[in-house]
């Protein structure tokens, strides 16, 4: 209690020390209460003559549960009730109910006088599974939830009537006209509310936003100067997390209470988990994406938010997923089982498809544990090598002969030509398609999501990293003829860089004994950029560089790590000693942190998960969480939120021409013990689209 009182005093002192006025309705005097054994939110509210929502407003975590020892902030106006705590509600008690024939969740909720949502809360599987006879579920007997006053909103064709105002004198609502390229997320954060709250005000938004549509928003207009500031990208955005308090936010953002309220008027009515706050640019933990005002993409600010969506799921409706992969089942079922085994061994496309599919199934099971149910349909696109037209006709038949109208997302097809055909056919229905594996750039229609970063994106991120840190370094470039384009780019970025020229021999290009060492400085740190996918050149260059390490400091880079680096002819100990840096779309999983996934996969399939299996899991699990977070993939992508899983991470940016691409890229380096280590950086500039 004493600790909390000091925190409150610090907040007040901080505000006064800045000699700035602050909003009286926001800052007031507080008292604290430490929860004792047996106390509940209801009993505490009753004890102090408060409404439960008044306590939750100051203590967001208390909405879910209170526990012994928890310290709550209460308004100074709270007065202790004369009633003894003996009359207070005890901790929640449960009864196990065995479901009978013909019983429904609705009938059970009525029987015990508790809402269906509360029953689901304590029986999470009911979010994804139907109630069956014989099921045993937990029923809270004395549950008291937070009572929220409901507002009836009447569409008056612009603005709302006085009847729309909450009866407790809370904020009224006003009309807002949707502008080009705006999203639910952008509008929600503009007004300091959650997406769920915006949708509650506008039930008709379920099917998405339309240009020119009039919707309802809180009557908390931003100042004109604030709007201008947004357009000048002076501000970033922050999503309120569980456990955040006003004090912690003031300390994190290093701003006064008055400034925080001015930027976010809705916060005067209480801090809520999921709120999107406008804060000064450059604050750690801010998120990126369209501001929802000017319709452009904001440059990445500070560190991109890596978010677990598990705490923000709101839509538990069944997700309808289509998976399209080239299994070629007609080849494996025509003959004997032994023939099928031979086909699997010799058919790379089939092996990839089977591995990817195994990861998808595991992701569905994992999502089910979070209350997300899935209706999965799998189509075999088959594959005939060299028969592009035949393959395309198969994809066309799948789409034209089946109903895709209620599909939430299609993952696949695998091949870029088939994917382009499918995205073209489904574009008119606005059904999103995720390109799962191909690194080749696909046709970016409005419904396209390329989940694998391209070579150009990887190179751009690595170049950006080097460019920002190149001052004082001796830059040396080694590039073969096949990489002349990136060599020219490096020459333009680093005019003073030293270029290593290859010699021509009977067996191809090679490096002379002193071609590299002559370029290496004894007095500066040397950054060597190696651009080739030729095994002999890589082997020769790394060996020569490693011999110089006794007297010179050398770090090795490449803007694109090709398959040649995995060759046994390359001395990986040399790469480790050279602290080799490279960009990557994924990272090798760490068994310690992903033990649950790896053990589950091995128990189920009796093998270690391949890269394709992990990618199938990561893409599918991320997609399902995004669909439960924002109802459709377009809204989820527009948030700019970055997520990370076993080996892959995702942050979708939108191309100006339409479609989304994954711009979440790892920068990796070889470290001690031949371990691959992720490079933590504070800023990665946005990758520009190449001509």
- What would CATH call the class of the largest domain? Alpha Beta
- Helix run count: 22
**How many strand segments?**
26
CATH superfamily of the largest domain: Response regulator
Structural class: alpha/beta
Strand order of the largest sheet: 10-9-11-12-13-24-23
Domains, number: 5
Q: What share of the residues does DSSP label as strand, in percent?
A: 15-25%
Stretches where pLDDT is under 50 for at least 5 consecutive residues are: 1-28, 81-90, 146-171, 221-233, 284-305, 682-691
Major β-sheet, in short? 7 strands, mixed
Radius of gyration: 29 Å
Mean pLDDT across residues: 76
What does this structure look like?
The chain is an alpha/beta fold. It has five domains: 2-87, LysM domain (Membrane-bound Lytic Murein Transglycosylase D, Chain A, Roll), CATH 3.10.350.10; 94-140, LysM domain (Membrane-bound Lytic Murein Transglycosylase D, Chain A, Roll), CATH 3.10.350; 162-305, no CATH class; 319-453 and 589-665, Rossmann fold (3-Layer(aba) Sandwich); 456-584, Type I PLP-dependent aspartate aminotransferase-like (Major domain) (Aspartate Aminotransferase, domain 2, 3-Layer(aba) Sandwich). A seven-stranded mixed sheet has the order 10-9-11-12-13-24-23, with helices on both faces. Strands 15-14-18-19 form a four-stranded parallel sheet, sandwiched between helices. Helix 6 (184-190) packs across helix 7 (195-201), helix 13 packs across helix 21 (611-630) and helix 14 packs parallel to helix 15. The longest helix is centred in the middle third of the chain and has 22 residues, at 348-369. The termini are far apart. Belongs to the leucine-binding protein family.
């Amino acid at each position: 209690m004493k600790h909390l009182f000091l925190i409150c005093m610090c907040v007040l002192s901080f505000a006064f020390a800045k000699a700035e006025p602050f909003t009286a309705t926001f800052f007031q005097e507080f008292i604290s209460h430490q929860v004792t054994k047996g106390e509940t939110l209801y009993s505490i509210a009753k004890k102090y003559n408060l409404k439960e929502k008044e306590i939750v407003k100051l203590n967001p975590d208390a909405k879910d549960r209170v526990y012994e020892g928890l310290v709550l902030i209460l308004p100074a106006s709270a007065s202790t009730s004369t009633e003894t705590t003996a009359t207070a509600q005890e901790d929640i008690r449960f009864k196990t109910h065995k479901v009978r024939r013909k019983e429904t969740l609705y009938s059970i909720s009525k029987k015990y006088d508790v809402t269906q949502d509360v029953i689901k809360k304590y029986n999470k599987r009911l979010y994804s599974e139907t109630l069956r006879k014989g099921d045993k579920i937990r029923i809270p007997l004395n549950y008291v939830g937070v009572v929220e006053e409901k507002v009836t909103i009447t569409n008056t064709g612009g603005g709302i009537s006085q009847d729309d105002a909450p009866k407790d004198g809370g904020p009224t609502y006003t009309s807002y006209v949707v502008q080009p390229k705006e999203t639910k997320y952008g509008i929600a954060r503009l007004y300091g509310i959650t997406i769920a709250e915006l949708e509650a005000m506008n039930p008709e938004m379920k099917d998405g936003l339309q240009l020119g549509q009039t919707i309802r928003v809180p009557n908390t207009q931003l100042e004109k100067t604030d709007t201008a500031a947004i357009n000048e990208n002076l501000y970033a955005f922050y999503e309120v997390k569980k456990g955040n308090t006003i004090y912690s936010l003031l300390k994190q953002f290093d701003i006064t209470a008055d400034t925080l309220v001015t930027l976010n008027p809705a916060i005067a009515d209480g801090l809520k988990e999921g709120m999107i706050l406008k804060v000064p640019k450059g604050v750690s933990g801010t998120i990126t994406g369209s501001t929802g005002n000017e319709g452009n993409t904001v440059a990445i600010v500070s560190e991109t938010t890596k978010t677990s969506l598990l705490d923000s799921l709101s839509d538990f409706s069944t997700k309808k997923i289509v998976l399209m992969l080239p299994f070629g089942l007609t080849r494996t079922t025509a003959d004997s089982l032994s023939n099928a085994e031979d086909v699997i061994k010799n058919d790379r496309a089939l092996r990839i498809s089977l591995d990817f599919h195994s990861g998808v199934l595991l992701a569905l099971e994992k999502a089910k544990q979070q209350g997300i149910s899935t209706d999965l349909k799998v189509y075999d696109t088959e594959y005939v090598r060299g028969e592009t037209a035949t393959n395309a006709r198969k994809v066309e038949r799948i789409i034209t002969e089946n109903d895709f109208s209620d599909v939430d997302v299609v993952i696949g097809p695998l091949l870029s030509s088939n994917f382009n055909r499918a995205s073209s056919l489904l574009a008119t229905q606005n059904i999103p398609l995720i390109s799962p594996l191909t690194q080749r750039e696909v046709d970016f229609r409005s419904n396209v999501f390329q989940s694998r970063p391209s070579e150009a994106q990887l190179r751009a991120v690595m170049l950006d990293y080097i460019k920002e840190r190149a001052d004082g370094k001796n830059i040396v470039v080694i590039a073969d003829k096949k990489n002349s384009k990136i060599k020219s780019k490096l020459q333009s970025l680093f005019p003073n860089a030293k270029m290593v020229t290859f010699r021509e021999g009977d067996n191809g290009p090679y490096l002379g004994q002193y071609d590299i060492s002559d370029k290496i400085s004894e007095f500066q740190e040397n950054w060597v950029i190696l651009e080739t996918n030729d095994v002999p050149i890589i082997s020769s260059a790394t060996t020569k560089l490693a011999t110089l390490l006794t007297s010179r400091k050398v770090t090795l880079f490449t803007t694109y790590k090709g398959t040649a680096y995995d060759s046994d002819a390359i001395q990986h100990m040399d790469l480790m000693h050279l602290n080799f840096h490279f960009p990557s779309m994924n990272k090798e999983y760490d068994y310690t942190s992903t033990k649950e996934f790896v053990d589950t996969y091995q128990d189920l399939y009796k093998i270690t998960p391949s890269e394709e299996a992990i990618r199938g899991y990561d893409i599918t699990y991320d997609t399902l969480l995004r669909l439960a977070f924002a109802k459709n993939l377009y809204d989820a992508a527009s948030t700019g939120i970055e997520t990370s899983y076993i080996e892959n991470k995702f942050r979708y940016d939108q191309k100006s021409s339409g479609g989304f691409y994954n711009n979440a890229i790892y920068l990796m380096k070889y470290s001690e013990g031949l371990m691959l280590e992720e490079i933590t950086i504070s800023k990665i500039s946005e990758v520009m689209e190449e001509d």
